[in-house]
Design a protein that fits this description.
The complex is a heterodimer of chains A (467) and B (103). By secondary structure, chain A is of the alpha/beta class. Chain A contains 18 helices and 8 strands. In chain A, the strands form 2 sheets. Chain A has a 6-stranded parallel beta sheet with strand order 5-4-3-6-7-8. In chain A, strands 1-2 form a two-stranded antiparallel sheet. In chain A, helix 15 (358-365) links the parallel strand 4 and strand 5 (373-375). Chain B is mainly alpha-helical. Chain B is built from 4 helices and no strands. The longest helix of chain B has 30 residues, at 65-94. The radius of gyration of chain B is 20 Å and the shape is flat. The chains are: A alpha/beta (467), B mainly alpha (103). Chains A and B meet through helix 1, helix 2, helix 3, helix 4 and helix 8 of A and helix 1, helix 2, helix 3 and helix 4 of B.
Chain lengths: 467, 103
């Protein structure tokens, strides 16, 4: 058994180790070391909790059994999950943090004495506020992440679900939560506590259903942030520094990622949250246009010929590459090109894919060295000096309309200047517009060659033709 | 007048937000996915609360209503801790530099 003061110091140490874990991620070289810091911080926090409670009864045996069960499930998932499924995995994990926060809050409410928060029906006011906020945010994180998970997994349609009065309903429910927490503090009523949690679950669902598939990078980051704030709320209740520090770190990390993602789409956070973007109401319009404009389409042979005769190629991957699992075939293609002394680099738009950094992980999985992969601002000037841009599974992020047409919904969004390349190869299944529901002008440019096929199959065919 | 300990915790919280702000901006964009999975793992330090709740049962009733919630929360958080750190490790191992091909 160790004293509360000593325990608090150890919790501080574990908080600092968590900071170092995030710090390590500033470069891939230091990142692995960072992860070990994180693991060490976690072990310290758990061991110190055992020691400070000093309860080595049969309960502890059960605690360890449950810990091992959960750990085994987690380890199994971590080893089995394909890299393309990372977005849904992260969403799923967020939901678990949220639910754990809710359960800890419930446990603290039902047995406040165990946490030194007073007695049933007479919980300290500050603790009551902290735990109900923790529970409410946790519940929103849980149900919101479940919806995000279902959308990312494709179990639920990625299309936004909207109905009239949606925002007003959310607002009323949000205010309702605060009013109920106020009454909870006055009455200490168990029923009100449960009601707060149930309404929060509902808010989580309502908050995420109107947000469409390609806005998922923002949603995931936002839920990441929420899970942090929920943890911090519980940290205040438990008076635990490790939890408060971690909650603040995770909360601000998620908030920054949401900001970066919104900026990369040139959309305000509010407009993403309100949702409904990409709802299509100009289908007829587009059909007409399509008939008028000629499109040049080619096959794998043409593409191979073009690239063989190029001296530099820039590859622009997008969500379509992830869906088709084309990253390994792509890497094979690039290897062949490099053998012919062609310079190949990758250009990644911040919102390519379904979560921040999604494309980078997939390319890393396919053994693409990370120093060949560039962010938008680092590579955008190179398009003008390159021979071929190979766009695979990306669409809206290459649309020049964002620079030219102020009426376009994506106007102002930073895009990759693909059209400045001497020629553009565009792998796509059909001419259908991307997520934003707008036509891509790039399809009709003279220097664009459309390759209509599944991304993986097309890449494999090109590889064959490169021999 | 004595300062409420809550204020100290609030100070830690706010300073940590600032630390988080600066540390996360220095994270390279290519590691944003591992950043999310590792923040996920560390936020599961909430397991501390779950352990306290679970161990609060008496020897006659190890599983009372409150401790059952604690035990379930332990499983949830443990999935996250192990899953989060391991999947981060798996991802980070894939990030490699160009092999030196100089002869």
């Amino acid at each position: 058994m160790i004293s509360a003061n000593l325990a608090a110091i150890f919790y501080l140490v574990s908080g600092i180790l968590f900071i170092l874990a995030l710090r390590g991620l500033s470069s891939p070289d230091t990142s692995r070391q960072g992860n070990y810091f994180g693991i060490a911080g976690m072990i310290i926090a758990i061991v110190v909790t055992f020691l400070s409670l000093g309860n080595f009864s049969t309960s502890l045996v059960y605690v360890i059994i449950f810990l091992i069960i959960g750990g085994a499930i987690g380890a199994f998932i971590a080893f089995k999950i394909p890299m393309t499924a990372m977005p849904e995995l992260v969403a799923g994990f967020h939901s678990l943090v949220g639910l754990a926060a809710v359960f800890v809050a419930i446990a603290a409410f039902l047995n406040p004495a165990a946490f030194n928060l007073g007695n049933v029906g007479d919980i300290k006011l500050a603790s009551l506020i902290e735990m109900s906020i923790g529970a409410a945010v946790g519940a929103i994180t849980f149900s919101g992440s479940i919806i995000a998970f279902l959308k990312l997994r494709g179990i639920m349609s990625g299309a936004p679900i909207t109905f009239s009065g949606q925002h007003i309903l959310n607002l009323i429910l949000g205010i309702g939560i605060f009013v109920l927490i106020f009454y909870l503090c006055k009455t200490q009523s168990t029923n009100i506590f449960w009601t707060v949690i149930i309404i929060s679950f509902l808010v989580g669902v309502l908050l995420i259903i109107p947000i469409g598939g390609a806005d998922m990078p923002v949603v995931i980051s936002m839920l990441n942030s929420y899970s942090g704030w929920a943890a911090a709320g519980i940290g205040f209740t438990l008076e635990n520094t490790a939890l408060i520090i971690t909650g603040a770190l995770v909360g601000s990390s998620g908030a920054i990622l949401s900001y970066i993602m919104c900026k990369a789409m040139n959309r305000s956070f509010v407009s993403v949250i309100l949702g409904g973007f990409g709802a299509d109401n100009s289908a007829d319009d587009r059909k007409e246009k399509k008939d008028q404009k000629p499109v040049k389409s080619g096959n794998a042979e043409d593409a191979a010929f073009l690239m063989k005769n190029a001296s530099s190629v820039i590859i622009v991957p997008g969500y379509g590459m992830a869906v088709a699992q084309a990253q390994h075939a792509l890497r094979e293609m690039v290897d062949k090109l490099k053998k012919n002394d062609i310079k190949v680099t990758y250009a990644i738009h911040p919102v390519a894919g379904r979560m921040p950094g999604h494309m980078n992980v997939l390319l890393a999985e396919a053994n693409v060295p990370y120093d060949e992969v560039f962010e938008l601002e680092d590579i955008n000037n190179d398009f003008a000096n390159s021979d071929v841009a190979f766009v695979i599974g990306a669409n809206d992020v290459t649309n020049p309309v964002a620079k030219t047409d102020p009426k376009s919904p994506i106007f102002g969004m930073p895009v990759l200047d693909v059209e400045k390349c001497k020629s553009v190869l565009f792998v796509k299944r059909s001419l259908s517009p991307g997520y934003a529901g707008i036509d891509n002008e790039l399809f009709y440019k003279d220097n664009t060659l459309m390759l209509f096929a599944d991304a993986k199959k097309m890449t494999e065919d090109i590889v064959k033709n490169l021999d | 007048m004595e300062i409420d300990p809550f204020i100290f915790r609030l100070s830690i919280f706010i300073l940590s937000i600032f630390i988080g702000y600066y540390v996360v901006w220095s994270v390279t964009p290519s590691l944003h996915t591992p950043l999310m999975s590792v923040t996920n793992a560390i936020s599961s330090v909430i397991i501390v609360g779950a352990v306290i709740a679970a161990l609060a049962g008496t020897s006659e009733s190890i599983f009372n209503t409150s401790s059952i919630f604690g035990f379930i929360a332990i499983i949830l958080a443990a999935i996250n801790i192990f899953g989060g750190f391991l999947v981060t490790q798996r991802m980070l191992q894939m990030y490699k530099k160009k092999k030196d091909k100089k002869k």
